[in-house]
From TrEMBL:
The lineage of its organism: Archaea, Methanobacteriati, Methanobacteriota, Stenosarchaea group, Halobacteria. CDD domains: PBP1_BMP-like. Gene3D superfamilies: 3.40.50.2300. This is BMP family ABC transporter substrate-binding protein. Keywords: Signal. Residues 39-55 have a biased composition (Low complexity). The keyword Signal applies.
Length: 383
């Protein structure tokens, strides 16, 4: 797969979308291995033929900002990269002083080269949007101290490199409550990518949500060891179907598991993006992202010279993540249960981990050290 580099100015975006499209962008938001070939370039006014764009160097305040995103899958996959790109488009439409660029389908092994190309060019800030980009980004950040870097889902920070993530485990807990309400077999399925704390945290939150409304509910997990591999995701989902699951969830970057569940006539829960059109009447809901809630203030801080390296990890109260709309056949009981829990969560009266083995654990543990299942999950986390 060839990595593809794109430059988009606000003028080009406005022309392409029209006024109605811009209004829609303001409220919408939600990898896999790619190859490392020559980038395909989409230039805009002010862009150079090689895909770079004019802008100011990182540093103190600036009248204009050039921001670059690097994705590990193509943005059209209706998953993780799609959600990030929706956030990019939203801020590009919001700020007339912002130029945005992105390169998609970049394998982790090729990411250092892409980060360096942006740092050598006009990028004031670079966003790396998958866990495996952490070390390559840190290496480039050390070489380019006047450029700002933000790494998504990782745990490293440097003077010119921050990290960011949202507490997606909160809407996962709520989705689990819905699953625990609608299941008839008391057996839920979960197709998961890699056994790292980010994914384990989501599995546990989903299981705890289900158990909070149905103490007979159990969760079965199948691992794919890939962020984006639709055939393997489908295979894992089908294996779970053979074990009598009647609600399917996923932590993958494609809707393959959701599609397999819907095709089998069971409840389907997606991730990253609204997926109701794929699952139809079998759609439950999806935990989804609104990355513009982070990208907007961060890019503003670059422009006004106040950017600082930090470890952003906010929850549903910030708007960074939420549940998608309900599917057309979801019973009112499930909706009411989740609505009540969401209100309690926002009021600070409901903590996902209360009553579990992780009650009282701090953010450092929850973010980067969780490595075991809660009781409602069958089996053990693989090494």
């Amino acid at each position: 797969m060839v990595d593809k580099k794109h430059t988009k100015s606000r003028r080009e975006l406005l022309t392409a979308l029209g006024a109605a499209g811009i209004t829609g962008l303001a409220g919408c938001s939600g990898g896999g291995d790619g190859g490392g070939g020559e980038p395909a370039t989409d230039t805009a006014d002010g862009g150079a033929a090689d895909g770079t764009a004019t802008g100011s160097d990182g540093g103190s305040g600036t009248d204009s900002v050039t921001a670059a995103w690097v994705y590990n899958s193509e943005v059209g996959d209706l998953g993780w990269s799609w959600a990030h790109n929706e956030g990019r488009k939203a801020v590009a439409a919001e700020y007339d002083w912002l130029e945005t660029e992105y390169t998609e389908a970049v394998a982790p092994a090729d990411s250092e080269r892409v980060f360096e190309q942006y740092a050598q060019g006009d990028a004031d800030i670079i966003f790396g949007c998958t866990f495996e980009y952490q070390d390559p980004m840190a290496s480039v950040a050390e070489q380019y101290p006047d450029t700002y870097f933000e790494h998504n889902t990782g745990y490293l920070t440097m003077e010119n490199m921050g990290r960011y993530m949202g507490r997606i485990y909160q809407p996962r807990y709520l989705a689990g409550q819905a699953a625990g309400t609608v299941t008839e077999t008391d057996t839920l399925g979960y197709v998961a990518a890699f056994p790292i704390p980010e994914v384990i945290r989501g599995i546990n939150a989903y299981a705890l949500g289900a158990a909070s409304v149905n103490d007979s509910a159990t969760l079965k997990v199948r691992w794919t060891n890939s962020w984006f591999d639709p055939p393997t995701e489908s295979e894992a989902a089908n294996a779970l179907l053979d074990e009598d699951v009647d609600v399917m969830a996923q932590h993958q970057d494609s809707p393959a598991a959701l599609r397999a569940a819907a095709d089998a006539g069971i409840w389907a829960t997606g991730y990253d993006a609204p997926m109701g059109d794929i699952a139809g009447e079998n759609y439950l809901t999806s935990p989804i992202w609104h990355w513009e809630e982070f990208y907007g203030p961060t890019i503003e801080s670059v422009r006004d010279g106040t950017w600082e390296s930090d470890a952003y990890w906010e929850g549903i109260e910030s708007g960074i993540c939420s549940l998608d709309d309900w599917g057309p056949e979801v019973p009112q009981e499930a909706k009411d249960t989740v609505s009540e829990a969401r209100s309690a969560m926002l009021d600070g009266d409901l903590d996902v981990w209360t009553g579990s083995a992780f009650e009282g654990e701090g953010d450092e543990f929850l973010f980067q050290e969780m490595s075991s299942y809660v009781d409602a999950v069958e089996g053990e986390v693989p090494n």
